[in-house]
C-alpha cells in the first residue's frame, strides 16, 4: 500500500483520509530508514552517554517530518541527565492519546545497536508521527520518544507524573510500542487496569478487529502464567500509565507460550541462543537478526505494525469521520454544481429549439422535424471543486405542426449526459431528459 503527498489510501470502508505526507512511500519505509539510522549510526545510546544525545538529535529530525514541532522534556536520572522527545498534535477537543516508544539502549554496552529493543518501536513512532501530521482530528495526539526506559521506565514516569490536572482529565489513552522484530509472533495486549474495568479494553478490541480485517496475525497474552493475566502486557513504558483510568495498549513481538510463559523468551528459532536477543550486543544487531530471521523479517514487521497503528490512530482520533464528513460535503457540492450545469444545458437546448421554430415557421399544414446534437468539453476542470476535466453531450428530437400563420403545435424531447472526472479518482455522472410542448 502506498501514500501520495497529503493523501492516504482509504484506511476504513467509506472513509477517505487526507493525510500522510510521506511522499509516495509504502507502509514501513519511513520506519525502516529511521531504524537503519538509529541502530547503525548510534549504537550504545544508553542513559548518560553522549551517544544518547546524538541519537536524540537524529530522532528529533525524524519526528519533525511534515512540520511537527519537537519539544525536549529534560529530567535527571541516577546515571545522568536524560530527556523525552514530545510531538503534540492538538485535536478539536482537549482529549489526547499518548503514543510512546523508548529509544535508549540497555546497560552500558558501546556496541549495542538495539535493533529490536527498541530501535524498532522508536522507528515506527517516527512513521506514525509523519502519517498523522496535518490531519484534522477530534482527539489529539502526543508522540513521545522516551528516554531512560531501560533503567526503570524513568522517562515515561517523569512524563506521566508531570501531567497537569487538566491533562490528566483529558488523557484518553496510551499506546506503547516496544521490541517488534525478534519475537515469533506479533502481540497487542491491554493494560492490566482492564481487569477492574472491562471498558478500558477498547483499544485492544479495536486493533484486533483491524488485524482480522487486514489478515495480519496479531495475538495476545494467553494468560498461561498466573502472574500475567490473560490479554495483559508488562515490562515497558505502558506501565507508567496503568494508574490512570484510561485504555492502555502494548505492542510487542515475542512468544508467550514458551519458557516461563511470561513473554521474556521471544522465539523458538534455533539460530537465536537462549531464544532471546534482549540487551545483547552479539544478537540484537542488524547483521545477526537478518541472518537468523531472514531479510524480509525487519521490513515486514515494520510494515505490519505501521499499517495496524496508522489505521488504529485514524479511527481513535476521529480523523476518518472528519475526513468522511468533509468528503461528503465536497461531493454534495460537486454534485450540485454538475446538476446545475446539466439541467441548465438541457433547458437552454430546449429553449433554443423552440426559438428556432418560432423564428422560421413551417408551411401551413406541414410537420417540420427538429434534430439537434451538441456537446462540450471542460479540459481545464476546477481546482476549487477537485475536478480534473469534464464533458457533456445532448440531443434534441422534436417537431412542429403549423396549423395557421399564427398557430403551431410543437413538442420536443431532449436527453443529456454530463460527466466530471475528479482529481482524487472516480467521477460524477448526471443523466436526464426533458419534454417540452409549445
From TrEMBL:
Q: Where is the signal peptide?
A: 1-24
**Where on the tree of life does the source sit, at the highest rank?**
Bacteria
Recite the UniProt keywords alphabetically.
Aminopeptidase, Hydrolase, Metal-binding, Protease, Signal, Zinc
Q: Which GO terms describe its biological process?
A: proteolysis
The Peptidase M28 domain covers 84-288
User: Does the record carry Signal as a key word?
Assistant: yes
One Pfam family here = Peptidase_M28
Q: Which InterPro entries match?
A: M28_fam (IPR045175), Peptidase_M28 (IPR007484)
Question: Per its record, what are the GO molecular function terms?
Answer: aminopeptidase activity; metal ion binding; metalloexopeptidase activity
Q: Which PANTHER family match?
A: AMINOPEPTIDASE YDR415C-RELATED, METALLOPEPTIDASE M28 FAMILY MEMBER
Q: Know the name of this protein?
A: M28 family peptidase
Q: Which organism is it from?
A: Paracoccus siganidrum
Lineage, uppermost ranks: Bacteria, Pseudomonadati, Pseudomonadota, Alphaproteobacteria, Rhodobacterales
